[in-house]
Design brief:
- The complex is a heterotetramer of chains A (367), B (201), C (203) and D (465).
- Chain A is mostly helical.
- Chain A has 15 helices and no strands.
- The longest helix of chain A has 24 residues.
- By secondary structure, chain B is α+β, with helices and mostly antiparallel strands.
- Chain B has three helices and nine strands, in the order αβββββββαββα.
- Chain B has a five-stranded antiparallel beta sheet. In chain B, strands 1-2 form a two-stranded antiparallel sheet.
- The longest helix of chain B has 48 residues.
- Chain B is globular.
- Chain D folds into two domains: 285 residues, Rossmann fold, CATH 3.40.50.11540; 73 residues.
- Chain D is 32% helix and 19% strand.
- Chain D has 15 helices and 17 strands.
- Chain D has a six-stranded mixed beta sheet.
- Classes of the chains: A mainly alpha (367), B alpha+beta (201), C mainly alpha (203), D alpha/beta (465).
- At the A-D interface, helix 1 and helix 2 of A face strand 7, strand 8, helix 10, strand 15 and strand 16 of D.
Chain lengths: 367, 201, 203, 465
Amino acid sequence: MNSNVSHDKGQEFSDARTQKIHENAKVLEKIAEASQPEWIVEPGPHLSDKSTTRRLMIDVIVALIPAMAVAVWVFGFNAIRLTGLCLVSCLATEYLFNLIRKRPGTLGDFSAVVTAIILAFSLPPTLPNFAVILGSVAAIAIGKMIFGGLGQNIFNPAMVGRAFLMTAFPVLMTTWVAPVDWKVDSSAPAAVAGENVDAVSQATPLTMLKPGSADRKLPVLRELIIGRTSGSLGETSVVALLLGAVYLLARRTITWHIPLGMLGSAVIFAGIAYMAAPGKFVNPMFHLGAGAMIFGAFYIATDLVSSPLSRKGQLIYGVGCGVLTMVIRQFGTYPEGVMFSILMMNGLAPLITRYTISKPLGGNVRA
Amino acid sequence: MLNMLKQIWLVLVLSLIFGAALAYTDQSTKQRIAENRQQQIRELAQMATVGELVRDEKGQAQFKIELKKLELSDKTLVAYEVLPIGGKGPRVGYAVIGEGIGWDRLLVLIGLSPDLSKITGLEILESRETPGLGERIKGDEFRAQYRKSAQKPLELVKSTPTEDHQVMALTGATISSEAVTAMVNTAVGKVRKAIQSNNKN
Amino acid sequence: MSKSNLVSQFTNGLWAENPSLVMLIGMCPTLAITNSVANALTMGMATMFVLVCSNLVISLIRSQLQAHLRILVYMLIVATFVTVADYMLQAYLFTMSQSLGPYVPLIIVNCVILARAEICAAKKGPVTSFVDGLGVGLGFTFSLTLLGVIRELFGSRSILNYQILPDSFEPWVVMVLPSGAFLTLGLVIGLVNYLRSRKRVEA
Amino acid sequence: MIAEKLIAKMTRKKVFPRGIHPNDSKSATCEQPITPLAWPAEVTIPLQQHIGAPASPMVTPRQDVKKGEQIAAAGGFVSAPVHSGVGGKVGPLTTCLVPTGKRVPAVSIKTQSVPSEEQLQAELEEYLSPAGEVRPIGELSPETIIESAQNAGLVGMGGATFPTHVKLKIGPNKTIDTIVINGSECEPFLTADDRLMQQAPSLVVRGLELAMRATGASRGVIAIEDNKRKAIESMRQAVAGKSNLEVAVCMTKYPMGGERQLLPAVLGRVIPTGGLPLDVGVVVLNVATSISLAHAVDRGRPVTHRVLTVTGAVNRPGNFFVPIGTPISWVIEQAGGLRKDAAMVLMGGPMMGVTMPDLSIPVIKGTSGITVLSRSEVRKMDQTACIKCGRCVENCPLKLSPTRIAHAVKMGDLELAESFNLMACCECGCCSYVCPARMPLVQYLKSGKAAVLRKRAAAKAASTK
C-alpha cells in the first residue's frame, strides 16, 4: 500500500506483542504492494437498477412478436418483406450517419431496431420496396439523427418516416389489401414481393366509415380483435397487441398513463358522439379496435423520447393524442388520425413537461 | 406648415411620379391582361366542347370557336355560348364557369352540348388543392369521368361505379372530388334554368 | 469606388450574404414557390428587378431621406416596382403569373429588399447599390432555383417541365408540398454551412 | 406508488413518496455481533473529520499519548476536538486523505502497549453497556450536556459529521419539540446501526433523552426500517413505559435515512428547501451519535472509536469496533482480507459511499461502513444518451427533474440549472440508480452544486473587496 504516512524508521517498540504486530503489518504491506489491485474509482451510486436503454428497447421488440406473428398470418410474405427491409435500411442509415459524423456507433442501443419495426408495422402491406427504404431513411435521418441522435429528437422517428411517406406517396400509402387467404394461396406463394398484382384491394375498417364509401360492411368486433382485417401491417390485431402491452406494463417498460389517457379519452369522445348521433357515428368500441388506436397507444405514443417527462404530463399527452385522433377520424378527411395526433402531441410534449413538472419537495429554492 | 412640407415633399413628389408611372403601366397592359384572361377561358372552352386544341410552333392556340357571353338573369353565373369561329354555323355548345370550395377556392369550366343534355368536358380553371392528392382532379382520367349525360345529378362513389350517373372519387382526395362534383351539379342546374328562362323571355 | 470593391459587392450577395441560404431572410417565397424551376426562376427574376430598381432609386434620393420617413419612402418605391412587375407578368407571362398567385404582390414585404435598402442603398452610391441589387438578386434567384431544381426533380420527375427521371420513378409528392420545401431548405442550408465551415477551417 | 401508500396505511408503517428499492444485501452482517478490532501498527488521525474549522494539534512528535487523550483542540465553535483511540508514540505531523477526497492535516501515532483480546473485548462491552450510575436527566442542565458533547468531539456519525453541540444548541428564536433518532440505515449492505440498536438499546434511549433535555424537546422518536425486526423489537422494549418516546416503523426504502425523507414519513413535516430539520422543530440524530452522546455525558468518554460494518467481497464480513484513524487496509485485513474478485472499496454504503483510491485512508468519525464490491457487482457504465424516460423524475425523492438539471449543468448553464432547483438536491443518487441510460446524473448535480458554491464564494469575495 502506498502509505501517506511517513515512517520513522529508527523507532523502537516497547513490548514484544506490539513489535510482532508491527512486523506483521510490514509483511502485509509487502504482500499488498505486490498484488495491489487497481481500485475502480468512480462516482456513486455504485448500484443500479437492472434496466438499461438496450433492455428497454429489447422489451419493446419482444412485445411486438405476437403482432409480428399475426402480421405474417394475415399479410403473408409482405410482413416479412416490409419488416426486413425496414430493419436493414434503418440500421444502415444510422450506421452511415454515425460514420459520416465521425461519432461512435449507436446500433447497440437497439433504438433503430425499434424504430424500424414500428415503422414497418405502420405501413400498408403492399408498399413497394423503394418507398419502404425511403421511409426508413427519412425516419432515421430526418426523424432522429439530424436532431443529434437518440434522445434528442422531438418527434417519434418512425412516425416521421411514416408522415414522410404519407405526404410523398399518398396513393401508395392509402392502398390497402385484404388479408391473405391461405386456403387459396397454399399452392402458390403469397403476393410476390413488392408487386401487388394479385393482392385483392380492400378498404380498411376505418376507410369504410368515411362518407361515400360503397362497401360499408363494417367488420364485427370479433374480427377486429383477432385482426383479420385490412390495414397497416401490425395494427390489425387487438389481441396480439394487447398481449405485448401486458408484457410491457409488467416489465415497467411503459407506464399506464399514456395508454389510459389516449384510449380513455378516445372512448369518451367517441361515446359522446355516438350517443348524440348514433346513426352518424359508430360505436366507440369500434374505434378502439379499428386502425392503429391500440398500436399507437401502447407502442408509439409511449415512445420515451418524444413523450413528456412527468407522469401528470404523460396523462395529459395521452388525452391529447386520443382526442386529436378522434377529431381527425370523425371530422377530418383522413380515415385514420393516430399518426398525426401523436406527431402533434410530440411537438407539444416539451411544453407539457415544462408546465407539469413537479415543484421540489419543500418548495422552490429561494433566490 | 413649411416645416411639414419640408419633411414630406419627397413623399409627395415620389407619390406623384409613381402614381403616374403606375397609371401608365396599367393603361398599357390592361388590354393585354384582359385578353389573356379571355384567351385562357377560350382555350379551356374549346377543350371542353370540341375536345382538342392545336397549337402552332409559337405555342399560339388555333381556335375553332368563339365565345359569346350570355346575359343571364342570375348574375352570379358566368356562362358562354360557344359558337364556331366567325359565328357561322350551328352552336357548338355552352361553357359554364363553376365556382366552389375544395380545400381552397376552385374554379372549373364545364362544357355542355348545345341541347344541354350532355356534359362534353370539364376543365380546371383555378385550383390550389394539395399536390399529389387534390390536385389530381386536373388529371385527364378523373375529368373524363364527367363526360356523361347531364340529365341526372352526378353522384360520387368510392368504388367502381355501377350506374351511369356515378363518378368515382380519387383515392385520398374525397373532399376535392366532392367539391368538383358538387360544382358541376350546381353549375349545370343553374345554367339550364337560366338558359331556359332566357329562351322563354 | 474601385473595381475590386464593386466585384466584392457583387459576389457578396451571391454567396457570403446570400439572402435565403445564409441570412435566412425572404423565407416566404423561398418556401412557397420553389416547387418548380420555372416558378423559382420567375420569382427570382421579379425580385431581382424590384431589388435593382428600388436600390437604384433609393440610392439616388438617399441625401433627401428623412430618417423617420425612410421606411415609408422605401415601401412607396418598392410597392410601385412590385406592381409594375406584377402587371408585366400578367400581361406577358399570364400562366406563370397565375401559378405564382399572390406571391408576386407579396414581394413588397420581402425583407431582402428592405434589408438591402437599409444596409446598402441608403448609404452608398447608385453604382454600388445597383451592383449590390444585382448580386443579391442573383444570389436569391440562384438559391430559389437550386431549391426548385431539387424539388421539381424529385416531386415531378422533371426540370422546367422536361421529364428527366423515368416513369418508373414514383414522384415524391412531399417535395412539392410546403413540408418538402422545409426539408429541402434545411438540407441545403446544412450543406452550405458544412461547405462554409470547411472553407473556414482551410483558411 | 398508490399501492405502496395503501400498504403503508394498512400496516401503519411510515413511508415517503418516490425513492427506490435496491436490494438491501444486509444478510451477510446483520447477524454478526460487534467485535473489537485489534490495534493497527499505526493510526493516522485526521484533524478535520467534521464540517467546520479544522482542529489544531496539541501534541508534538515523539510525544507519548494515552488512549483517549485529546490530541487536537477545536478550531472554533463549529468545529470539534480530536482524541486518540490508541496509546502510543506520536509520529511526525503529516497530512492524509480523508474519504471526502480532501487532504487534511493529521497526527500519526505508532501504537504501543497493544491491549490483549480480552482487554479489547472488555472495552467493547463497556462501550455497549450503560454507565453504572448516571445522574437523572432532570439534574443535568442543557448547557452541561452540550458542553460534554463539545468536549467529547461529538459529530454526526451517520456520515454528515456536523458537530453535535452546534446542532443541540438551539437559537433563542427556535423551538424544538421532537428529537428523531435515525435508525433507518437505508444504505444497502450496512448494519452497524442495526447492531448497535440490538446490542445497546438502552444507550440509544439514554442519548435520545439527553438530546431532548438539551433541546427542550418533549417527544422522542426512533425511526427504524422494517427490515430490522430485531432492532425494532429491542428498541421497543427499551422505550417501554416511557410515554414520551416511541418507535416508528418505516417501510424499507432508499433514502429513508435522509432527513428530508425521514421527517415527512415519520412526522409528516416537510423541511423547506434550503432549510434544516430545525426549521420544522426537529433535531435528527444518528444512532451512533446518540450512543456517543450518552457516553460523553455519563462517562466523559470522547469519541475515539466507532462501530462500522465491513462487508461485501471480504472473507469475514462483520461489524467491528474500530479506533478512529485505523487505515482501511488494516480493517479489511481483520475482516479476513479481500476476496479475489474485489474491485472497488467504498467508504460507506454503495449508494452514497465514496470509492477509495488508496487503502491507507483512515477510518474517521463519520465512517459507517466499508463496502467492498466485487467485479460482478460494480455497475457497468455502458452509457447511452438520455432517452428522456422520466424515471429519474419519477423516483427523485425531492421531486426534482435530475435529467433537466444535469443537462443544464452539462451545457454549463448554471443559472438554468439553479432555476430547475439544482441547489435543492440531496445527492441521494436515486436518479443515477434508476437511469437506464446509465448517466452519472447525481455526479452532474454534485459538480453543478459545487460550481454554484464556488461562483457564489467568488462573488462574495469580489463584493467584499
